[in-house]
Design a protein that fits this description.
Blueprint lengths: L5 E6 L3 H9 L2 H9 L5 H20 L6 E6 L12 E7 L1 H8 L6 E6 L17 H9 L5 E11 L4 E4 L2 E5 L6 E7 L7 E5 L2 E4 L7 H9 L12 E6 L14 E5 L3 E6 L4 E5 L7 E3 L4 E14 L1
Parallel strand pairs: 1-2, 1-3, 3-4, 4-16
Antiparallel strand pairs: 5-6, 5-16, 7-10, 7-14, 8-9, 8-13, 10-11, 11-12, 13-16, 14-15
Helix pairs in contact: 1-2
């Protein structure tokens, strides 16, 4: 007998809740904000709007389903099941933060602040939740398969991201490494830079696009469902020992970019989640390419 679907509502603490956690009371938080020329009223209103949206989304879950909630901070400790339908209630970035922990479960993005969020990934309103849940579990339900990027280290450490993966120094130092195509016979070009960014079509609305514009790149930006990645080296430094001939490119499915560490420490993290990073040291190598897994976003 198969299990009933489970709705997993993903959310994050609001700015108001973070203020209370830091200052203890509403009054103390209000005083803190007023001393900086801000009013707590707007923050409290956005908090209530978010909580109301979360309540309405929870109420839209069919009575025959199971349901649970998970905060962003607990995602790395939460076990998603194959029968889950994931409802992200919040910002676009929260969908990206959730994507790396999934393995094909449908995702519904609910925007709690229309007009404040771009709505690239949280495309729906909370009033549409019931219909979206039915669509997510129906055969032939409409969904987009968004390309993800993957990093796999030589010690089997693995990282997935929906927008981009960054490799670089943990602080403001210079990263030293060798960069080349995966599988080539040469060790790659020795480089010194502030890091390497590998991004998807979903990430092409953010950090990847910023680098693309800065470089005035002629490479076409990928669309979210395209099986294509772009990569850029940030601030490569030419010297007698380091080169700058490989600073940008694209990767199709099956192609990889390989980086071999030649400094004490390099961190690798995805979608801005620095707290969930891989760490590499001298001599280790890592391959970046299109992940076999994609994000199934209900439309």
């Amino acid at each position: 007998m198969s299990l009933a679907p489970r709705a997993v509502l993903v959310h994050r603490r609001t700015e108001y809740e973070e203020l209370l956690a830091r200052h203890g009371t509403h009054g103390q938080a209000a005083f803190f904000l007023s001393s900086r020329g801000r009013s707590i009223d707007e923050v409290a209103r956005r908090h209530e709007d978010t909580r109301q949206a979360l309540r309405e989304v929870a109420a839209a879950v069919p009575l025959t389903w199971r349901s649970t909630r998970v905060e962003r901070a607990d995602l790395d400790r939460f076990l998603f099941a194959p029968e889950d339908v994931v409802v992200v209630v919040g910002q676009d970035g929260l969908v990206a933060n959730t994507a790396k922990y999934l393995s094909g479960q449908p995702v519904v993005g609910v925007d709690t602040a229309p007009g404040r969020n771009p709505g690239v990934l949280v495309r729906h309103r909370h009033a549409d939740t019931a219909a979206l849940l039915r669509s997510a579990t129906a055969s032939g339900g409409k969904a987009e398969e968004l390309t993800m990027v993957e990093a796999v280290a030589d010690d089997t450490q693995r990282l997935l991201a929906l927008n981009e993966i960054y490799l670089g120094p943990p602080g403001h130092q210079t990263a030293r490494y060798r960069l080349g195509e995966d599988g080539e016979s040469t060790p790659g070009e020795a480089q010194a830079s502030s890091g390497v960014l590998v991004g998807t079509g979903t990430g092409a609305t953010g950090w990847l696009r910023s680098l693309w514009l800065e470089r005035r790149s002629t490479l076409p930006l990928p669309a979210p469902c395209d099986a294509r990645l772009l990569w850029f080296v940030r601030e490569a430094w030419p010297s007698p020992a380091t080169g700058t001939s490989r600073v940008a490119g694209e990767l199709a499915r099956g192609q990889g970019l390989r980086l071999t560490v030649e400094s004490d420490r390099i961190v690798v993290f995805g979608d801005g989640m620095e707290s969930d990073a891989l760490e590499l040291t001298w001599g280790q190598s890592i391959r970046l390419g299109i992940a076999e897994r994609s994000l199934r976003l209900v439309i």
